[in-house]
Specification:
seven-stranded antiparallel β-sheet; 2 helices; single chain; about 575 residues; Immunoglobulin-like; mainly beta; Chondroitinase Ac, Chain A, domain 3; flat
């Protein structure tokens, strides 16, 4: 009875003085703390790897439900788990087994999330990594159709006549018989003249030719698909693109005094570095539908609204626009050309409504010390004039889009900071030159968007495990990071803030600002293990510490008080029993 009373008193006092410490005598230990599965072929699975979880201290360690999280969580899988939901006594272990099964090529990252009642390591995160690799294609099984070429352009053919014949070859590259079903063409201008293999079969390795011709009944550009259905399991239908242009030959002159009305089809054409975009035009040369005319590499784009009127500098109707690379005219000081300058012809062409011009550039081609980027055109009497362009970025491709009303030379220009001049010896002052006559002031050109970062701030979370007496304090498990972005340029633009923590990209945010506008960008990072962290956003840098502080002197003093109280209680119990 005496021993039981003494134990009860000790437990009660320990719960009162140490509500966290008295219970937190278990400690989770996990090995290994990371799993690297190496290179695994896409579509296959790695060898299983095991993580061992152990209660390395006393008490009862309660394990929650173990899961896999992070961006590539689906690329990893738990194949066995005897730890989730278990309670582990001191020294007892449990295992979780994980595999890597990539569905696409590239580096993959995941996290094994292990929740528990451990007071300072909950949850415990095991890093998972692996690389998916593309293996050789599997050997064919069954019939495998191959069609060459994939498209035919018959060129210009006179209306009412037939083109020269063109052949398409169909081959069975599989290891079983290929059955060809009914061939079809969705335009009567294109016909199969011979080699209609509908209903035929091809043994492995065999080929057959299909001969086609183009006989246009109307003028203009025409296109169609030759559809080849078969019993190929993964290419049940193959489409071959057929195209051609119906042309009208000149008509002989009618007898004198004879009138015969004629219909003339007009087209509006854009030749962008050899890439032809064409649309039917009205009688006065206006395209009847909106046009998007890209350059061959898709980096640049000219967009023209429907029924836009185009005239040259004499007022004549223009229906052919030609765009070619050109030598850039003399550039302003501290300005460099990005990519190639483009000359739009006929020079001096005017539009009765604005057209959209998009100039693209590779961000890797930007020079060092670049301060701003803008789209500009060249005027004979004024030099380069910047356009009010809207800037966008996709991966490594930047684009500047602006409305234009006339044609001249256009280019992407980058303004760079001047190099510091070399030190020069001090020379006697030169005589003052005669003042030059004042020149008429030119209209100021708004500077492109330019961004300045400032006021990096890091706010750390503080958690006290016992509110009244500070036995244990956890600082920096979460960190709120803020900074200011100011657009010091003269045009609106977007800035992408990238948060780097200890050299690793953690998060990115995009913010759009008008001229002179300032906005605050904030990031929150959580589950920070104890240690030092270095934060970098653009040219701003900061550090913070995530740490666990334990007041051992206060704990020792409290233990001493607890012992004295226990001894006093024991003495009172013993004295009472003697009485």
């Amino acid at each position: 009875m005496k021993k039981a009373s003494l134990s009860l008193i000790l437990v009660l006092f320990s719960q009162i003085l140490f509500p966290q410490i008295a219970l937190a005598c278990w400690d989770i230990a996990v090995s290994p703390t990371s799993l690297d599965f190496g290179d695994i072929q896409v579509g296959s699975s790695s060898t299983a790897q095991t993580v061992t979880i152990t209660n390395s201290n006393g008490g009862k360690l309660v394990i929650g439900t173990i899961t896999i999280t992070d961006t590539d969580a689906s690329q990893f899988a738990i194949v066995s788990d005897n730890a989730s939901g278990q309670t582990l006594s001191k020294g007892v272990s449990a295992n979780v087994t994980v595999i890597f099964r990539p569905t696409s090529a590239g580096n993959k990252m995941g996290s094994l999330f292990i929740p528990s009642n451990d007071p300072d390591e909950n949850p415990f995160i095991v890093t998972l990594s692996g690389t998916g690799t593309e293996g050789p294609p599997p050997p064919p099984t069954g019939p495998d159709i191959s069609v060459s070429p994939s498209s035919i352009n018959f060129g210009q053919v006179q209306v009412g006549t037939a083109s020269a014949s063109e052949n398409i070859t169909v081959t069975n590259e599989g290891d079983d018989t290929l059955l060809i079903y009914n061939l079809s063409i969705n335009d009567t201008g294109f016909t199969i003249t011979s080699g209609n293999i509908s209903g035929q079969s091809l043994l492995p390795g065999d080929s057959a030719n299909i001969t086609l011709a183009f006989a246009p009944a109307t003028p203009g550009v025409q296109s169609a698909n030759l559809t080849i259905p078969s019993n190929d399991a993964d290419e049940a239908t193959v489409n071959v693109l057929l195209s051609g242009t119906g042309a009208v030959s000149p008509q002989p002159s009618p007898p004198e005094g004879f009138y015969r009305p004629q219909m003339v089809m007009r087209y509006f054409t854009v030749d962008f570095l050899g890439k032809i975009t064409q649309e039917v035009a009205t009688s006065d040369g206006r395209p009847i539908r909106s046009m998007q005319a890209p350059s061959p590499d898709g980096i640049h784009l000219l967009e023209i609204e429907e029924y836009t009127g185009v005239t040259d500098n004499t007022g004549g109707v223009v229906t052919l626009l030609v765009i070619r690379e050109a030598e850039a005219m003399e550039l302003p000081e501290n300005t460099v050309l990005v990519g190639k300058a483009l000359e739009f012809k006929p020079t001096g062409t005017f539009f009765d409504k604005p057209v959209k011009l998009t100039l693209g550039y590779n961000v890797n081609d930007l020079p060092d010390r670049v301060q701003s980027i803008g789209a500009a055109y060249y005027a004979d009497n004024e030099g380069w004039i910047y356009l009010e362009a809207e800037a966008t970025n996709v991966a490594e491709l930047g684009k500047l889009t602006a409305p234009v009303y006339h044609f001249t030379i256009f280019a992407v220009l980058a303004k760079v900071a001047p190099e510091p001049p070399p030190a020069k010896p001090v020379a006697p002052p030169a005589p003052k030159p005669e003042p030059e006559p004042e020149k008429p002031a030119l209209s100021p050109i708004p500077e492109p968007a330019l961004f300045k970062l400032s006021n990096l701030s890091i706010t750390l979370s503080v958690t006290t495990y016992y509110e009244h007496i500070r036995y244990i304090v956890r600082t920096g498990e979460e960190a709120l990071i803020t900074m200011g972005v100011t657009n010091t340029g003269g045009q609106s633009g977007s800035y992408v803030a990238i948060l780097m923590v200890n050299g690793t990209k953690r998060e990115r945010k995009e913010v759009t600002l008008g001229p002179g506008q300032t906005k605050t960008v904030s990031f929150t990072i959580t589950s920070n293990e104890p240690g030092k962290y270095t934060v970098v956003i653009g040219d701003l840098t900061g550090d913070f510490l995530s740490e666990l502080w334990v007041n051992w002197w206060l704990i020792a003093g409290s233990c001493g008080i607890l012992i004295l109280i226990a001894l006093g209680a024991w003495y009172l119990v013993k004295r009472k029993s003697k009485a």
